[in-house]
């Protein structure tokens, strides 16, 4: 029987939520800076090589051990493929077509596939309020589609392509989220599993980059190297370990509620540093996305 008070239980969830939200809200603008010289696939490779080494070093310090059995290795590779190869290659490429703030808003819809896949694969039932909130949020994304199509300097086709790429990334991220809630994931130490997933993802990213973009490239700017360290250590090793622990504790749909506030922070950065142009459509779309997700958040038991 647990002696934890309701307040301490709330804090054990709210504090990790705040950390993940603040850090991931800032990573979108850092990713944007990574797209100047180095092909996206190489930037993704560097990020998760740093993140993987950091996670395994942390696992060693904790005494978790670095070995995985054959089942663990297979799981780590599949997790790395979904989360750290497909998902992030889609993210970086989406930001070549649309602003970082809009990509973040699209990723706010992570709640939707997380809830659906949790119902299918984990048996967690969706509440009516979650369904209603998700429908409102999807209407908001439709307005953002229109805004980007009308005002994007690269043209409607490129803007819609960027949003489609981001949605593909959302699906891949959701698959990885569901994997983290399975009994197989829980059978291994978090840091060890994440470290090898990140390193296997970085290896696949590197092979893909070599095949599609040529030999490794690196941007000599201090901001690029600093961005790699920030994204690798704080934006990946720290935040993914916290976020995946939340998934194991409260479920994929509820953990995805972090995405409610991340777009607000990301679009603020985008407005300040990218000259993001707000319009009635953009404001209405972002408002509907956030309103829909808040409706879902207010459900007493959105996933049972």
How would you sum up this structure in a few lines?
With 304 residues, this protein is mostly helical.
H/E series: HHHHHHHHHHHHH
> How would you state the average pLDDT, rounded?
85
SS elements, strand count = 0
**What Rg, in angstroms, do the CA atoms define?**
19 Å
Notable characteristics:
304 residues
SSE topology sketch:
Blueprint: H1 6-33, H2 40-62, H3 70-94, H4 100-107, H5 111-122, H6 128-151, H7 156-180, H8 183-186, H9 190-213, H10 222-250, H11 252-255, H12 262-273, H13 280-297
Describe the 3D structure.
The chain contains 13 helices and no strands. It is mainly α and about 300 residues long.
């Amino acid at each position: 029987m647990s002696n934890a008070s309701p307040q301490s239980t709330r804090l054990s969830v709210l504090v990790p939520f705040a950390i993940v939200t603040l850090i991931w809200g800032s990573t979108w603008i850092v990713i944007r800076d990574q797209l100047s010289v180095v092909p996206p696939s190489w930037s993704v490779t560097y990020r998760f090589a740093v993140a993987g080494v950091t996670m395994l070093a942390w696992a060693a310090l904790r005494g978790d051990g670095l070995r995985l059995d054959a089942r663990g290795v297979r799981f780590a590779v599949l997790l790395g493929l979904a989360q750290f190869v497909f998902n992030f290659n889609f993210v970086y490429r989406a930001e070549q077509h649309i602003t970082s703030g809009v990509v973040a808003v699209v990723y706010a819809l992570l709640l939707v596939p997380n809830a659906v896949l949790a119902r299918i694969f984990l048996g967690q039932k969706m509440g009516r309020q979650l369904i209603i909130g998700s429908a409102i949020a999807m209407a908001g994304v439709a307005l953002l589609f229109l805004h980007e199509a009308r005002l994007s300097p690269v043209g409607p086709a490129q803007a819609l392509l960027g949003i489609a790429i981001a949605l593909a990334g959302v699906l891949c991220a959701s698959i990885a989220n569901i994997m983290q809630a399975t009994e197989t994931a829980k059978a291994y130490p978090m840091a060890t599993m994440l470290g090898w997933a990140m390193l296997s993802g970085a290896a696949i990213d590197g092979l893909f980059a070599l095949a599609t973009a040529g030999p490794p490239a690196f941007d000599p700017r201090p901001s690029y190297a600093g961005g790699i360290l920030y994204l690798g250590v704080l934006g990946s090793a720290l935040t993914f370990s916290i976020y995946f622990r939340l998934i194991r504790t409260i479920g994929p749909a509820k953990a995805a509620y972090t995405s409610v506030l991340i777009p607000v922070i990301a679009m603020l950065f985008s407005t300040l540093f990218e000259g993001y142009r707000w319009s009635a459509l953009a404001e209405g779309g972002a408002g509907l996305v956030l309103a829909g997700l808040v409706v879902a958040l207010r459900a007493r038991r959105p996933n049972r």
